Amino acid sequence: MTANTPSNLRVPGPTPLPPEVLDAVSGQMINHRGKSYEEIQKRVIENLQYFFQTENDIFLLTSSGMGGLEAAIVNFFSPGELIVSFTIGEFGNRWAEVARRFGAKVVQIKFTSGTAVTKEEVNRVLGSQRGVKGVLFTHNETVTGVLNKISDFAPIVKSHPDKPLLLIDSISALGAVDLPMDTLGIDVLVSASQKAWMAPPGLVMIAVSQKAWEQHKTSSMPRYYFDLTMYKEFALKNQTPATPAVATLFGLDASLKLMKKEGRENIYRRHLQLRDDLRSGIRKIGLELFVSESDASPTVTSIIIPHGVDGHEWLKELREKYHTVLAGGMGDTKGKIIRVAHMGFVGKKDLDEVLVALEKSRQDL
Ligand SMILES: Cc1ncc(COP(=O)(O)O)c(C=O)c1O
After folding, report:
1. Does 339 belong to an annotated binding site?
2. Pairing relationship of beta strands 140-141 and 146-147 according to DSSP bridges
3. pTM
4. Which helix (H) or strand (E) holds 315?
5. Coarse DSSP helix, strand, coil percentages of the chain, rounded to the nearest 5 percent
6. Which residues pair with 69 in a beta bridge?
7. Domain positions in the chain
8. Residue 1 scores a pLDDT above 50
9. Domain named Aminotransferase class V: which ranges (predicted)?
10. What's the pLDDT tens digit per position in 250-282?
11. Closest CA to 216 of 41, 72, 32
12. DSSP 147-176
């Protein structure tokens, strides 16, 4: 697969669109209260259930990813309730901050940038906390390129005496990385259209377990636009309460068809292979990886900026001379790393081109 963009766009969202998706998003608008819209929404939700590996409700919110993370807090908790948040970077910090701003009591456990959450620490922290209503993890920390092994932590959360909800931000992994919601007992799972789903920005997907619905009934955080009670009512008609991002839905419908054709397992394998090939290519050209083999993300790879190189200049050289658009660090990794995204519409050729651009631009500098 090669992206049909003037430059090799390898930032972690928005990601390039396949030609079929580009065609779909340019379609004429339709009535979002009409039959053709309802058919599309129904099909999209069914296809998302296949990739979320769930029979739970999934709702589409017209928002960027952060809106989905806000919805995941305000719908299930009341001010003063205890939420434990395990964070490994900036996006985890932001989610914890959302919970704080809406009045939750947040215990945030921060891990060193570039490393994953450990089972031992989850055991230790949850073992010492009582009155826990929810536990938050970022599946894939996009800011560092670290993948958390949710399957290691889910059983610990599930066996906690308080029976807290397990909430996962998989905005930059789901669709590319295996995360079986029902098998792991995840209660709230959030993703966003502009990442591995090969669709434009504009839609968040949020899946909600039966147990989370029970907690929703008594939760009292303020909410209006993101109140999932309204989404559930409108979902009965395969509609959304407010005007949805119709063009993004057209795109997501087309991309899910492509994804189903490729098959879940093949997609997961492709991303793992791309990660491994890219990492070995980076080592070969003498650059250093920021994340260890065991924590490395299948969708984002971080490279340490070599001593004496200005990261900003390097990104500019890559962009202007080699038409390769990569991302810098964020928060505490700003100026320390550059990041290559490889999620969704991406193949070996795209990443081989990134490697050539990296090697040549490094020499130029
Ligand atoms: C893991 C993760 N969480 C949250 C967000 C925020 O999403 P958005 O920028 O769409 O609001 C991002 C965006 O890159 C992300 O990668």
Report:
1. yes
2. antiparallel
3. 0.98
4. helix 311-322
5. 45, 20, 40
6. none
7. 8-15+264-364, 19-260
8. no
9. 12-323
10. 999 999 999 999 999 999 999 999 999 999 999
11. 72
12. E--HHHHHHHHHTSTT--EEEEE-TTTBTT
Token pair belonging to 304 = 């340490």
Q: Where are the alpha helices (DSSP H) in 26-118?
A: 35-52, 65-74, 90-101
151-208 tens-digit pLDDT: 999 999 999 999 999 999 999 999 999 999 999 999 999 999 999 999 999 999 999 9
CA of 68 to the centre of ligand 1 (A): 9
Cβ pair 12, 172 in contact under 8 A: yes
| CATH number, domain 19-260, options 3.40.50.720, 1.10.3730.10, 3.40.640.10, 3.50.50.60 | 3.40.640.10
Asked whether 138 lines ligand 1 (CB < 6 A), one says yes
What angle (nearest 5°) sits at the alpha carbon of residue 176, between those of residues 25 and 326? 75
- Mean pLDDT of the chain, nearest integer: 97
Residue 5's pLDDT is 56
Task: Evaluate the omega torsion of the peptide bond into residue 222 and state whether it is cis, within 30 degrees of 0.
Answer: no
Amino acid at 211: K
**Residue 238's closest CA among 64, 47, 59, 65?**
59
| Ligand 1 atom showing the smallest separation from residue 172 Cα | 16
CB of 142 sitting under 6 A from ligand 1: yes
- Token couple for 335: 């100026």
Q: Is the pLDDT of residue 3 over 60?
A: no
- Closest ligand 1 atom number to CA of residue 194: 10
- More confident position, 365 or 265: 265
Sheet harboring 337-341: ordered strands across? Answer: 288-289, 300-304, 337-341, 327-328
Instruction: Please state the CATH superfamily assignment of the domain spanning residues 8-15+264-364 in this structure.
Output: Aspartate Aminotransferase, domain 1 (3.90.1150.10)
Output the CA torsion 7→13→16→18 (10° steps): 170
Does residue 75 register a pLDDT over 70?
yes
